[in-house]
From TrEMBL:
This is Transmembrane protein. InterPro entries: MT1774/Rv1733c-like. Keywords: Membrane, Transmembrane, Transmembrane helix. It comes from Streptomyces mirabilis. It comes from the Bacteria.
Length: 194
């Protein structure tokens, strides 16, 4: 019995009622549509974003490859090996052999603590240019999931904001209607003194 009463209270806008206005019914449908858009659209947006991000990270892992290089110069030498540093990677000049056999030199991020002449691993893209290491499969999956959740929340927030704007507009229409009705009925209720 109590559950039936609660369901009736939740669905009062759809029931036939002499006090129900057309705007009440419109608002009920707007609220239902917004919730459906938030749930279904947010889920689809999140899934599509996560899938696109994962595909992008997979493409990065496929395009980039590691190469052995020799450390030519490092800015970390001024700090000294074993000194406290807030970073675990530093920018250094490295030399490597390209796939065509030519020797190339460039700036790359390497682990802190290597001496000049030591071997380091650097990453190249498909154009044989120095680049950063691509994310691992697990890191890419975690980042894709975070991006998907963020996209779903952002889409849901936009849908919710659109629904609130629609409800605000309906409230303004109701206030205007109440004002017009009061202008008609109000003078009849005032006490007239002569």
């Amino acid at each position: 019995m109590r559950r039936t009463k609660r369901v009736r209270q939740l669905l009062w806008r759809w029931r036939s009622n002499p006090l129900r206005r057309h705007d009440d019914l419109v608002e009920a449908w707007v609220v239902l549509a917004i919730w459906l858009v938030m749930v279904i659209g947010g889920t689809l947006t999140g899934l599509l974003t996560a899938h696109a991000a994962d595909a992008s990270f997979s493409r990065l892992r496929h395009e980039r490859h590691p190469v052995q290089a020799v450390l030519v110069a490092s800015k970390a030498q001024a700090v000294g090996i074993g000194a406290d540093t807030p970073y675990d990677r530093v920018r250094a000049t490295v030399r490597w052999t390209a796939t065509d056999g030519s020797t190339r030199t460039g700036q790359a991020m390497v682990d802190y603590g290597h001496r000049v002449g030591s071997r380091v691993v650097v990453w190249l893209n498909s154009k044989e240019q120095l680049t950063t290491q691509p994310p691992t499969a697990s890191a890419a999956a975690a980042e894709a999931a975070c991006l998907g959740v963020a996209a779903a929340v952002a889409f849901g927030g936009l849908a919710f904001a659109a629904g609130r704007v629609a409800q605000w507009r309906l409230d303004q229409r109701r206030y205007d209607q109440w004002g017009r009705e009061w202008d008609q009925v109000g003078p009849q209720w005032r006490r007239k003194t002569t």
